[in-house]
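COMPLEX REQUEST
Ligand: 5'-deoxyadenosine
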Amino acid sequence: MNVHESEKLYASFAARGTVPAECAEEANVIVLNTCCVREGAETRVIGNLGYVKKLKERNKSLIVAVCGCMTQQADVAEKLHKRCPFVNVITGTYKLSRLPEMTEKAEKEGIFILDLEKDESVPRGANEAMRRTPASAFVNIMYGCNNFCTYCIVPYVKGRERSRNAADIECEVRRLIDEGRREIVLLGQNVNSYNDGDTDFRGLLDRLSSLPGDYWIKFMTSHPKDLSDDVIKIIAERPALAKYIHLPLQSGSDRILALMNRKYDITSYMRKIDLIRELMPEAGLTSDIIIGFPTETEEDYEATENAVRRVGYNNLFTFIYSKRTGTPAAVMDGQVPEPVKKERIARLIDIQAGIANAAAKKCVGKTYRVLCDDSDGGRHTGKTSDDRVIVFDGEARTGEFTDVIVTHAKNSKLYGKVK
Ligand code: 5AD
Ligand code: SF4
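STATUS: Structure written out below.
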């Protein structure tokens, strides 16, 4: 999601005549668009600012701005200002499109600007973005989140859930398809609760998958409590809807899911998985898992292992629980020691590798429709409808669909050739 925020940032700078620099050393303005979902992301920003400080010592007229989730937190923004007084502009998540004006003002008037004001209005019309990938395009359908999972900082820094107008989304998607994009990825913290007052998520998928052209639509992220049977059914029915669902489980233990405030249990999650498998046996499924949520026991962890084995995800994004100040979980008793978390996550990664390797072997000999998204000297990379990556040889053009036969698998990686 932050990648797309940065694409929109590029567009708002470009609209005022600013062009991207070849490298940080040549830039007049440097913007750090931050994330704070886990501590690691915040640590990286501090590291990058150390380098930017050196650049500013060499080039006094350099303007530095920090924006995004991390600095939307007022205390973090204040600390950052004290620690890095060379930063000229600090803003959060709400006013990204105004950042070019802010950096110009900071430069002209030689002042420091801090703007963390909340603005939950949803702009009308198509979003302008400087998309870097020719084959694929991200499209926001909603912003914010109402779920307040107890580990998560997002609702505090991105505000309440609000949906873009369906006609605006349709217009943007139509334009992207007309420009030749073959993959549209709809974005939202919880796309299943999309509702603009007239159109719900199923309705939006209906409208978008009825547009003319050769393309597929993917979306993320789905919340298991809100993924409806109707949405699963329309994905199965429509060729333009990719057979891929990212459905974060977070934990396989009902006790931990309740503490996380996820509002589903493992039985209802598996019921949805079973329906997906029944209607789309070849669908690709991926998930996010948090290891070491407060009070997680070995038994809870094993329940997660079992769930992961039962589903057989294409891919798993595993995270060590990271304390986020201001969230309920940060002050829960029973924080799990770091070495225990590390040992558990290593085990889960190992199990998932085994599952992914076995699944990859089963793909050998099969032919997939692949969207080629990168080419380098006759060797291409592309993605399937179920979101597997295939490296392949033969005649193919970036941004086009090609039939590829999988010739071999190395661990979980697939290799093939144009059919
Ligand atoms: N610690 C670890 N992982 C987290 N995520 C969100 N908050 C935290 C946290 N405090 C993970 C969740 C979410 C993904 C985007 O990041 O798994 O689905
Ligand atoms: Fe965070 Fe939960 Fe909202 Fe996802 S659904 S952004 S994990 S609060």
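REMARKS: The chain has four domains: 2-115, 124-242, 268-362, 364-418. Residues 145, 147-149, 152, 154-155, 189-190, 223 surround iron/sulfur cluster (ligand 2) (CB under 6 Å).
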